[in-house]
Amino acid sequence: MAYRYDPDLEFLEKIASSDLNDLVYCLTHDKDGEVRLTEELTSNDAYKQHYPNHHLYWELIAAEIQCFGANTFATLFRGGKGVEYREVLTDVCDKMKVNYSKDASVERIENNLLLKVLNDALEKMSPAQLRELADSVGIKNLTLFTPEALLGVFQAVFRAGGFKSYQLTVIIVNAVLKALIGRGLHFAGGAALTRTIGVLTGPIGWAITGAWTAIDVASAAYRVTIPAVIQVAALCQKHLYAKEANEVSFS
User: Fold this and answer.
1) Distance between CA atoms of residues 163 and 228, nearest Å
2) Is residue 110 in a domain?
3) Label partner for 251 (CA 20 to 30 A): which of 14, 76, 213, 220?
């Protein structure tokens, strides 16, 4: 396993070790807490020496994502290097039938993925749950609390960026991870955020066990790449939000 330079994963170098905990766990352990048979990270000398200071071996974490997203035999011919994150992301999107432009930025494609997840969940929510979700994320001026109306608002939130976009990402990602790997993001705190996550967890779980059974989630690779991509999206949003907040504070 070797890291292939990847501009879309370089930001991991700037992520705190504590925030990388969930991603590392996802890459190395399955839903039952057992070490994955196909992972290589925990056998690496740098991991053994520095764990849990993940920041010191962020390239190995990135390489693990790249290799899980690649064909095993092709990886051998590439000298142990996988594929770039963009290819891993678009492969996940193709499997989950996400609409996206191949020319779009990785951040935009990640947002399309999250919106697809959210749309699947909204379609399974009751009117009362839709209203509760809207209230909990500060949406006050809707006349009709329908899946279509809420999805339109959330699309605007992602386009605008900033804290609301980060908050929505964390809410979706936390609910997805609870359904896929049995545990959510450790940094998804706050009473309001926790309440919103509770509203979404059920419908997202139903969406995964229902509509998503048509894709090959049962394969070893997709059991890793789907939650890994979802977590990378959350970390990227957190990094971008922190960067924007820091720029504002010094302006």
Assistant:
1) 22
2) yes
3) 14
Q: Is residue 1 part of a domain?
A: no
The DSSP line for 186-220 is TT--SHHHHHHHHHHHHHHHHHHHTGGGGS-TTSH
Report how far residue 195's alpha carbon sits from residue 67's, in angstroms, rounded to the nearest whole number: 36
Looking at the DSSP bridge assignments, the partners of residue 170 are none
What's the start-to-end Cα distance of the chain, in Å? 42
User: Please, are residues 170 and 193 in contact by the beta-carbon 8 Å criterion?
Assistant: yes
| Domain housing 172 | 10-249
Query: For each of the chain's 251 residues, which pLDDT tens digit applies?
Result: 788 999 999 999 999 999 999 999 989 988 788 898 888 999 999 999 999 999 999 999 999 999 887 654 344 444 567 899 999 999 889 888 899 999 999 999 999 998 888 888 888 888 888 888 887 777 777 777 888 988 898 888 888 888 878 888 888 888 888 777 777 777 655 545 556 666 777 777 766 665 455 554 556 677 788 889 999 998 998 888 887 766 544 44
Question: 49 exposed, middle or buried (CB, 10 Å; 0-12, 13-18, 19+)?
Answer: exposed
4, part of any domain = no
SS3 content of the chain, % helix, strand, coil (to 5): 70, 0, 30
Is 205 buried (19+), middle (13-18) or exposed (0-12) by CB count in 10 A?
middle
